[in-house]
Amino acid sequence: MSKNKKIEIRGKTKIVFDDTPYVLKPKIRRNHPAMVPYLKSRNFYYFPKILEETDQYIKSEYIEDYDVPGDQKILDLVDLMALLHSKTTHYQEVTEDDYKKIYEDLTQNILYLKTYYEDLATLIESKIYPSPGEYLFIRNISKIFASLSFCEQELKEWYSMVKEKREKRVAILHNNLKLEHFRENETPYFISWDKSKIDLPIFDFYKLYQNHALDYDFNKAFREYERNYPLQKEEKKLLFILLSLPDKITFSKNEYENTWKIGQSIDKLYKSEYFISPYYPKKREEDKT
């Protein structure tokens, strides 16, 4: 072991730059190491090797990250995400209640947001002198309600498509995708698999979008993803609903923070509309007339 080793701490993770650098993480859950043999059996090897494992921690190899432009890196990431999904896809039996729960949970969320924003708009409109953040919010409230109406209608159509189905397509999800959890080396890798699970493939793309919606061109990224892993019609519809749901905007005492947060939320709604609009050409024509 080198006497001059350097230790870098990132949250609960330690990166030890020894003669052979390695990563030391507390063992939060057991399913990631147990998932490794399955990933290998599916010929998916794009994760750090586990060097040592105890009841308290996991020691794994350190993967150095090459300097790659962000726009290219996001495309490389979705390529690897599509490979993960295609390698691990299988079908699970479901009952009517499984899809019904998704429908009811999303319906309740939409109704909650509608009521929340109606009350918030009423409160702000009653003020003689709204703050800059409140003014920005009121100017864009119609966009928020339009997005909620779109989600409400699309959700009904989605449920009519799936309520008679008795199986669903699932895959292993990384479940925490962002650029900092992707390494470009001689081989690409996903790191930080602590939240990995088996679920609908669209949730990986959704998490990635939530983390980087305003940073990159997701139209191109989505085309790249579907080129390697085409989504089923009902999967795509559910994904578009999730992407179109407005964030819950809360106000703090920091006016700069309020204005920035509202601007980000509204920008994301417009970005999502731009992203999904090519898949709704008929609706776009109706909106023009």
How are the SSEs ordered, and which strands pair?
Layout: E1 6-10, E2 13-17, E3 22-26, H1 31-41, E4 50-53, E5 57-61, H2 70-88, E6 90-93, H3 96-125, H4 132-139, H5 141-162, E7 167-173, E8 182-184, E9 188-190, E10 197-199, H6 202-212, H7 218-228, H8 233-244, H9 255-276, H10 281-288
Antiparallel strand pairs: 1-2, 2-3, 3-5, 4-5, 6-7, 7-10, 8-9
Helix pairs in contact: 2-7, 3-5, 4-9, 5-8, 6-8
Task: Describe this entry's structure for a reader.
The protein has 10 helices and 10 strands. It is α+β, with helices and mostly antiparallel strands and 289 residues long. The protein folds into 2 domains: 6-62, Phosphorylase Kinase, domain 1 (2-Layer Sandwich), CATH 3.30.200; 88-288, Aminoglycoside phosphotransferase (APH), C-terminal lobe (Aminoglycoside 3'-phosphotransferase, Chain: A, domain 2). It has a 5-stranded antiparallel β-sheet, with no helix packed on it. Strands 6-7-10 form a 3-stranded antiparallel β-sheet. β2 and β3 form a beta hairpin. α2 (70-88) packs parallel to α7 (218-228) and α3 (96-125) packs antiparallel against α5. The longest helix is centred in the middle third of the chain and has 30 residues, at 96-125. The termini are far apart. 22% of the residues are buried.
